[in-house]
């Protein structure tokens, strides 16, 4: 383990909590004391609950091919449904409410990941890469915001393939992972070439919820397996982004501290546990946890 990561990681090794899945994604800690995650490419995709006892239960099947998940201010589960191309919320009675399926009358692409702000706004990435060109109604891949009143706005309209996203501890900066430019990037990797379209951007979030001053935060250029995907931030401002070879860790200035390596390539990560100091990884066929030395930024909840 690189010396700089020894200041970050408490565990000596990741602990595998389960395996045998098709492709795990969407990790989330629920304040009632359990993990949620998705077996994304299972048919149909299932949302699971994993209790600390090790007991696993089905929460939703089918799930509309849910990918990223978060909780709103009231603690309700919010989901990015790729198959149905919408953002939904699970009500206390288990029913599903649609929060957004269009922007300015145009159907969303396939929402990928989502994060909440303490003002009630929900920000989600809307990449176009998994939608056939003939089926795209929005002419850009971007980042959208759902306001508490249900209004959907586009806050970033010039991204390539936006994926995971996370806020800084003060919520003034939004970090967004860019997976690739197009299919050429995958072909580059298959040839053993470095993909130069893998990076993290940062945006300032204004009081009105708009995103400004888009800029490069960190490069994640690599020829190795994996792409910039899910992302989280700790209370000291470090950014953790799943990517080639493992979980890339950066300080708050974008300096690369090292890579947390698992036995499988991770796609996403989440903070959790009673002290919010455990990191949960969804990694291909398996799920893992590791203890960290710094708590993660909490999901905003009403007092």
Automatic annotation (TrEMBL):
SMP-30/Gluconolactonase/LRE-like region domain sequence ranges: 23-283
InterPro entries cross-referenced by the UniProt entry: 6-blade_b-propeller_TolB-like (IPR011042), SGL (IPR013658), SMP-30/CGR1_Lactonase (IPR051262)
Keyword annotations: Hydrolase
Gene3D superfamilies, per database record: TolB, C-terminal domain
GO MF term list: hydrolase activity
Matching SUPFAM superfamilies: Calcium-dependent phosphotriesterase
Protein name: SMP-30/Gluconolactonase/LRE-like region domain-containing protein
Organism: marine metagenome
């Amino acid at each position: 383990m690189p010396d700089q990561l020894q200041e970050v990681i408490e565990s000596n090794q990741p602990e595998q909590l389960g395996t045998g899945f098709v492709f795990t994604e969407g990790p989330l800690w629920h304040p009632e004391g359990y993990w949620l995650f998705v077996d994304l490419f299972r048919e149909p995709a299932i949302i699971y609950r994993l209790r600390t006892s090790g007991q696993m239960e089905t929460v939703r099947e089918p799930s509309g091919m849910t990918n990223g998940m978060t909780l709103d201010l009231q603690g309700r589960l919010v989901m990015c449904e790729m198959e149905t191309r919408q953002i939904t919320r699970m009500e206390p009675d288990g029913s599903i409410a649609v929060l957004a399926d269009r922007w300015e009358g145009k159907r969303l692409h396939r929402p990928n990941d989502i994060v909440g702000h303490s003002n009630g706004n929900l920000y989600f990435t809307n990449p176009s890469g998994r939608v056939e060109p003939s089926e795209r109604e929005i002419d850009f891949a971007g980042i959208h915001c759902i306001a508490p009143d249900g209004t959907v706005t586009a806050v970033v309209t010039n991204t390539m393939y936006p994926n995971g996203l996370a806020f800084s501890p003060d919520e003034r900066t939004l970090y967004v992972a860019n997976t690739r430019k197009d299919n050429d990037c995958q072909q580059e990797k298959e040839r053993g070439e470095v993909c130069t379209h893998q990076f993290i951007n940062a945006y300032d979030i204004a009081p009105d919820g708009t995103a400004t001053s888009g800029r490069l935060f960190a490069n994640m250029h690599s020829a190795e397996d994996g792409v910039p995907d899910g992302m989280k931030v700790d209370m000291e401002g470090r950014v953790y982004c799943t990517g080639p070879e493992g979980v890339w860790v950066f300080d708050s200035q974008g300096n690369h501290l090292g890579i947390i390596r698992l036995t499988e390539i991770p796609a996403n990560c989440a903070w959790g546990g009673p002290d919010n100091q455990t990191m949960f990884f969804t990694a291909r066929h398996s799920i893992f946890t590791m203890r960290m030395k710094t708590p993660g930024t909490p999901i905003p909840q009403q007092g």
